[in-house]
Amino acid sequence: MAEPGGGRPVTVSDVQQLVRRKDEIEAQIKACYELLEGQKGVGMHEPLVDAEGFPRSDIDLYQVRTARHNIICLQNDHKAVMKQVEEALHKLHAREKEKHARDEAEALAEAMSQSLPQAFAKVNSVSPGSPASISGLQVDDEIVEFGSVNANNFQNLQNIATVVQHSEGRPLSVTVIRGGRRVHVGLTPKRWAGKGLLG
Known about the structure:
Blueprint: H1 12-38, H2 61-115, E1 121-122, H3 131-135, E2 142-146, E3 149-150, H4 157-166, E4 172-178, E5 181-187
Helix pairs in contact: 1-2
């Protein structure tokens, strides 16, 4: 039988076919051993001549020799098929492992690209005691949404200043990326001891 996967990947049905072939060979070996048993229990190594060196007359010599020859040939075939089964299983499992790793990497890449929207600004300072500080905003937070402003409509920092002035005393929804994760912050612009409404 030709080695499966010569030019194409090994499939489960290739392995099943090899296992069927192995079972057939085992059945043939068993039949040959039964034939030897039927010849007065002659096995693979009992002498085929009597004490005087003449061929034994109580058994069918031709049948015994043919059965012994067939058993030897079939055992070699069996060994070869078992090697093919082992190789095919290795290839099959290696491919499954490879596919699983590839699927996981793709899923991870997809999750990363889906879950992290584009940031349009980065927090470079937060004044202690300011509305920004109280809301939990941190230095190095990357802003992806600031009220109605996002990466798609952001032009300059004046956009944020406008939103802040119109939202004095009202909570704003702010979304940032922090440490590779999306974080929502509730920020209420208001007057405080420092400059501006945010700090």
